Amino acid sequence: MVILIFILGLIIGSFLNCLVWRLHVGKTLGGRSQCTRCHKKIFWYDNIPVISFLVLKGRCRHCKKKISWQYPLVELATAILFTLAYLQITNYGLRITDYENFTAYGLRLTAYFVFISFLIIIFVFDFRYYYILDVVTIPAAIFAFIANILLGMDWKSLIFGGIIGGGIFLAQFLLSRGKWIGGGDIRLGAVMGLMLGWQMVLLALFLSYTIGAAISIILVALKYKKFSSKVPFGAFLSSATILVLLYGDKLLGWYLRWL
Ligand SMILES: [Zn+2]
User: Fold this and answer.
1) Would you call 29 helix, strand, or coil by DSSP?
2) Is the dihedral of CA 143, 144, 147, 153 positive or negative?
């Protein structure tokens, strides 16, 4: 079963790559995928996640244009995160014949896979283009709210979480007159609250700042970046949210022990 989830992750990851690309160039979905340079159609046998990248040695079959590492990395990351979510939610796996449990866990699994997919799109887009798209955050917010209510979460906790997440960035936005962060961060903060509820969103925000600070210090120390250069903060926010979605309870327990 784990293998099936992993393969599902690879396929969804490949679809997410395609979505990021189309959101970037502003094309609508539909139509076959094609090479970004020679525009030759990519056939299914050249479009198998990860494997095709390895077989073609990272180049287009026709024009030999280099294919970005983003493609296999996003596919692998999606597959790994789906697998971790599956193991976490089902408490280390189900047998494929275990129909009863599938219906019990199905809703939560589906919801988490969609959450993770939204967060991966936000991560990749912010990481590459330093931008958080409203066409992604707004559907993510609506989906998160509805899914969490169906999963039995308290709507007040969700709304409160959304207000905390969005409010923290709104405050910084107002304080800095829009210099430190953009409006996209405010909406992403609200998405985090609606996905996690108010307790966990605090943990996720704390983690984002910790991860962000740690990575910035490392990059500055290695002289990759100047201190003032742009930071894809949305990428830290979305990775912290995924971390808390999967391991929030454990992280919180671990953190409280250190207090
Ligand atoms: Zn090509």
Assistant:
1) coil
2) negative
Q: CA-CA distance, 117 to 9, in Å (whole number)?
A: 9
Question: How many A from CA of 78 to the centre of ligand 1?
Answer: 25
Exposed / middle / buried, residue 178 (Cβ in 10 Å: 0-12, 13-18, 19+): exposed
- Closest Cα to residue 197, out of 234, 137, 249, 124? 249
Q: How confident is the model at residue 111 (pLDDT cuts 50, 70, 90)?
A: very high
Q: Identify the helix (H) or strand (E) that includes residue 105.
A: helix 99-129
**Per-residue three-class SS string for 229-258:** CCCCHHHHHHHHHHHHHHHHHHHHHHHHHH
Using the mean position of ligand 1's atoms as its centre, give its distance from the Cα of residue 8 in Å: 27
Query: Helix or strand or coil: residue 176?
Result: coil
How many residues would you count in the chain?
259
Ligand 1 centroid–CA 53 distance in Å is: 13
**Residue 124 Cα, ligand 1 centroid: separation in angstroms?**
22
Distance 41 CA to ligand 1 centre (A): 9
27 C-alpha to center of ligand 1: Å?
18
Rounded CA-CA distance 13/155 in Å is 30
Q: Provide the residue type at 184 as one letter.
A: G
Per the model's pLDDT, the better-predicted residue between 67 and 6 turns out to be 6
What is the separation, in whole angstroms, between the first and last Cα of the chain? 39
15: which residues sit within 8 A by CB, 6+ positions away? Answer: none
Residue-wise pLDDT for 216-226, tens only, equals: 888 888 876 66
User: For the whole model, what pTM was predicted?
Assistant: 0.90
Cα–Cα distance, 2 to 4 (Å, whole number)? 5
